[in-house]
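#onboarding

Welcome to the new folks! Below is a worked example of what a typical request in this channel looks like: someone posts a single protein sequence, and someone else replies with the predicted structure as tokens. Don't worry about understanding the tokens yet, we'll cover that in week two.

Example request:
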Amino acid sequence: NDGLPDSFEGNSAGGPDTDSDGTPDFRDTDADNDGIPDSNEGHSNGGPDTDSDGTPDYQDTDADNDGIPDSIEGDSSGGPDADSDGTPDFRDTDADNDGIPDSVEGSSTGRPDTDSDGTPDFQDTDSDNDGIPDSIEGDSNAGPDTDSDGRPDFRDTDSDADGIPDSVEGDTASGPDSDSDGSPDFRDTDADNDGLPDSFEGDSTGSPDTDSDGAPDYRDSDSDNDGVPDSVEADSTGSPDTDSNGIPDFRDSDSDNDGIPDSVESDSAGGPDSDSDGTPDFRDSDSDNDGIPDSIEADSTGGPDTDSDGIPNFRDTDSDMDGIPDSFEGDSTSGIDTDSDGISDYADTDSDGDGIPDSFEAVSPTNPDPTMPEDTDSDGVPDFRDTDTDNDGIPDSQEAISPLNPDPTMPEDTDGDGIPDFRDTDTDADGLPDSVEGGQNDEDSDGTPDFRDTVDNPPLPPAIPPVIPTAIPPVVPVEPLPAPPPEPPAPPLFADIHFLATTGIDDSTLATLQNSRISELDTDRNYLELAYTDRKITFDIFEDDIFDIELDISEYIHLTVTDQWHVIEIKYGTGPGDAVIQYLARLDTHTDFAEDLYIIPRSFGDLLRTDYDSSLLGFGGFKSVYATNRFTDAGASTDPQAPEVASGDGDYVTASEVITLEADTLWDLAGRIYGNPARWVEIYDANRSQISDPDLIYPGMQLRIPR
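Example response:
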């Protein structure tokens, strides 16, 4: 009663016995002994024949020829039907409809259950329980086997053997394809195509996510979000770890641990490499190879940029643009700070704080190379760090300036020898070393320290102590002795002192003096005698002790016009051919006059000017030009806004037509041209050939003005 007519199954004694159990099929309710009753496998006409092999199912132990015996696929009720497609599994070549034939998923010896969930693979749509359907992982040939481990992907929980389970890498659709290379992540050993295997970047949970951007590292092409692709920062092993902190560079936002984020130091190509040493800046702890670590030179923003040249200090080999390489100015610890001002030398334009720029101190006429800084006194301390460059005991900060030149950036050169005072061991070229003369000594109290004073005026005589009267004993009368013959008086050293008031000069006389360009003393004197009001007093100063005298000046001299400059003429000797010295003084009191008289023989280096121009008059022929020398152009404009007409010739411009305003000084001219009056000496130096003998500035002179 299996539903199959015996006429179909055979009813003779020799009828078929499909399962060779001794019971002919027509008497056997399970002719093929597959566990599925013939009543389920066949019908009244003996069919069907599922696999079309000529053996009807009730006699076919593998009705669908899928390699899985019907005894495994079916049961006594004829089920199951895993994919609910109406075809029981023993007749369904793809029982779970996963696209993988049961002949691949099953076997004749048993029922593989890869994920041990109780459902054999041929009936399990996700045989390995990785969340990725077998229909995605497998094909009709059972492949692929991405990691070639002999286990097809649909049975492999880590199809690409990257250490990241397919359940993490994939999804039910087919899984993301992070690098869009056509290979889904669960089959891609480098899901983000960054050159780093997923086995290095991920773990069994799919973590970590270094930059916390929601994309795990194995899917993130820039795991640390530093702007440098992982493909640049790492190799196939996940190395390097530049700073050896246990965090590989591709996960380290500061790969070289210099305090500067890789996002500041690098670009998307992994550059730059500032010092061209083959190590990109983001891995180089000294990007510019100046010996100063980037951690000292820079901050977290990549700054500062001391010289504002657009190159941050950590990439700048001369951070302060003083011409001296940072490799010379700094060190590997914290940078040398010579003047302790809180600014390291490599970023300090005046490292020793003497007011003279390092760019000036680093070079000299004999050493124009700032990369080998000058050491004037050969003491092993370069000038830019030496507060006493010439080792004369006088600080550079004192030697660099003067009353007429308060700007240390244009250091003073007192003797005009081309060597600035701070490098000159004999500043005034008087043959006495500055180390002997000293920086504070002013022997003649004229306001000019000895090391700059070419005229060494003797000190004023000490005050004469008052005479304390003593008791006079009684006089005992004696016979007077005869008087000795009188001795002749000592000849006077000085005589005929003239006080010449300036009020008597007129324009025509001044013009004559200016245009004559004379320097002969006698001729000058003649003009002066014509031009000035002569107020004369005569007294003797005896030769035996020039400075030990008391002057008794009459009230007449005191009443001379005051608050005005006067010319004093002093004549040595009494003869008509004796030398005459002309000297400028301001007479206010007897004391003033006495002090002036004492310094007369040694004061010509400090000539004062008259109401007009002492340099034009050329008193005594002395050659001195100062910042306050006035000069007048016959055709000069009186308009304070008058333009200066100039033509160029190389490093100079020649001021013509209007060289200055009426009664200007070199100080004024330098202030107008350079904005710095202290640079008057540059104009003087450029025109020495014109104003050297005598040092006069003539009307109409064209001055060469250094650019």
